[in-house]
Design goal:
CATH class of the largest domain: Alpha Beta
Shape: rod-shaped
Structural class: alpha+beta
Number of strands: 19
CATH architecture of the largest domain: 2-Layer Sandwich
Helix content: 25-40%
Distance between the termini: 109 Å
């Protein structure tokens, strides 16, 4: 503030016989309060003279159009009528008529229904607009949330000239939690937030009033008294002065100036951006407006990146669960090889491919000999151990392209794509011989009876399984621990059981 403006301010304050108790206004702007119908001034700051050329007493009785100009009032009413999301900058108008031109006027709706006007000297040309656009582009191009915060703090330091900047997130209990930045005092504590340990406010309660932005120019400067109605709510003001106790507390914390912005999510406070320093620092309405837009853009992008990360994490977890469910649906729980349902699907695919492409494909049906006696003598737990051991032994001797599954009970099925009948017979004999040479504690020697067949032209999975089942049944009646082959025709269907047998024929 210039010396002449300071002298006019001091003179105007000394004339005010109607001071309003409590709230004061910072001397770097002038406050006017109008009734909801814009017909009369109900509130004025004591420094009206330097800004309006009128004493506070004459302002209270002056018609608003004559003081501010009809064009300016019309522009202000139009700005306030615009819908604004939470956190959006307040409407600003450059006065073009009235007693004093060249004033930047910021309009607010008070909770009492009154209209609040903050008048400040209009700034000269500033290069901050292009800087804000550049920072906004960089922030929106960031691919992770932490980078968004880093860029926001760098942009805030550039726009405000403040050395300290920090971003806070409100916890569910309403306590500001430091996300990133360098608050004075250390330990991640916000010096402008209420002290939740003592319940006393550590600053101008920037985190508890409805003002989307609060500017503290100089904590060592006194406030300007307000004259007029006590009923007018002044909480939305950016230049509302802190109380004396708050100002002294800020000074003890080494804070001289600060600007704090509330960040919103779905209309509710989500967090805060605080910039502070140990020297007086005034920010023009334009810089404050650009800082608000930049901060809200960064906050929205930060939340979107967090939501995307949460969505990707949830999708990955869902894919993992679906894969697990698929494995459970396709896997036999005892042997951990494919179950019958899965083998029927694979068999359908392989038979169709073999018939279509005229490629060889063979089927082996293996049955553990005298398995019922294993269960009767040693119990089902040992029986399950034998099944698992057989599954491992069989799997180790198959090609990577061969498909093994438990067909039912003590039966296993092997689908061998691109395998002729002769090759399948050789594989079955090798399996039969190798398994018979293994001892399985506590059962002893375990043998297999194996039936082998191969896909024929115009074959179906049902006929293929029927032939393999017939070949395996013949191996049983041939003395077990041997291999039998059925190469042609479906043959008579054995009447002894369905493929998932519950008895062992000897």
């Amino acid at each position: 503030m210039s010396d002449s403006l300071q002298r006019e301010f001091d003179a105007s304050c000394s004339q005010g016989p109607f001071p309003r108790a409590g709230a004061t206004f910072q001397p770097y702007g002038c406050l006017l309060g109008l009734d909801p119908d814009w017909e009369v001034f109900r509130l004025v700051s004591g420094n009206a003279g330097p800004f309006l050329g009128r004493s506070p007493q004459t302002v209270l009785g002056h018609p608003p159009p004559a003081l501010l100009g009809r064009n300016t009032l019309h522009a202000l009413r139009a700005e306030l009528a615009l819908p604004r999301p939470a956190g959006a900058p307040a409407g600003q108008v450059l006065a073009t008529d009235g007693l004093r031109c060249g004033l930047s006027i910021t309009a607010h709706h008070a909770r009492t229904g009154d209209i609040l006007l903050e008048l400040e000297p209009a700034p000269g040309p500033e290069a901050c607009t292009s800087d804000a656009v550049t920072w906004s582009v960089r922030i929106c191009a960031a691919e992770d949330a932490q980078t968004v915060l880093v860029l926001l703090l760098q942009a805030a330091r550039t726009l405000t000239g403040q050395p300290g900047c920090a971003v806070y997130r409100l916890t569910q209990g309403g306590t500001p939690r430091l996300l990133l930045g360098d608050p004075p005092g250390g330990a991640g504590r916000c010096p402008l937030a209420p002290d939740h340990g003592t319940g006393q406010a550590a600053g101008p309660c920037l985190f508890q009033d409805p003002a989307p932005l609060r500017l503290l120019v100089n904590s060592h400067a006194g406030g300007v008294p307000l004259l007029g109605s006590e009923a007018v709510d002044t909480s939305p003001l950016a230049l509302r002065a802190p109380t004396e106790s708050q100002r002294l507390r800020l000074q003890t914390q080494g804070l001289c100036s600060a600007v704090a912005l509330t960040l919103y999510e779905d209309g509710a406070p989500w967090g805060f951006l605080v910039c502070h320093g140990d020297q007086p620092r005034y920010l023009s309405p334009l810089r404050r407006q650009l800082l608000q837009m930049l901060a809200q853009t960064a906050a929205q992008h930060y939340r979107l990146l967090h939501e995307r990360r949460a969505y990707l994490r949830a999708r990955k977890e869902l894919a993992t669960r679906n894969a697990r469910l698929k494995r459970l649906a396709h896997t036999d729980p005892v042997t951990l090889v494919a179950n019958r349902h899965r083998m029927e699907q694979l068999l359908e695919q392989e038979v169709q491919a073999a018939v279509r492409d005229r490629q060889p494909c063979s089927l082996l049906l293996l049955d553990i000999d005298r398995f019922k006696q294993v269960n009767d003598r040693h119990g089902h737990e040992v029986g399950d151990q034998v099944l698992r051991r057989m599954a491992r032994e069989i799997q180790q001797r198959l090609r990577s392209s061969d498909l093994l599954g438990r067909w039912g009970g003590e039966e296993f099925l092997v689908i061998a794509p691109d395998c002729t009948l002769a090759q399948a017979r050789w594989l079955a004999r090798r399996l039969c011989r190798d398994i018979a040479m293994r001892e399985v504690a506590p059962v002893g020697r375990v043998t297999l009876s194996i039936g082998v067949t191969s896909v024929l032209p115009d074959d179906t999975p049902q006929r293929l399984v029927r032939r393999a089942d017939l070949a395996m049944y013949r191996a049983k009646h041939a003395g077990r621990a041997c291999v039998r082959v059925v190469s042609k025709g479906p043959g008579p269907s054995p009447s002894r059981r369905a493929p998932a047998r519950t008895t062992d024929p000897g």
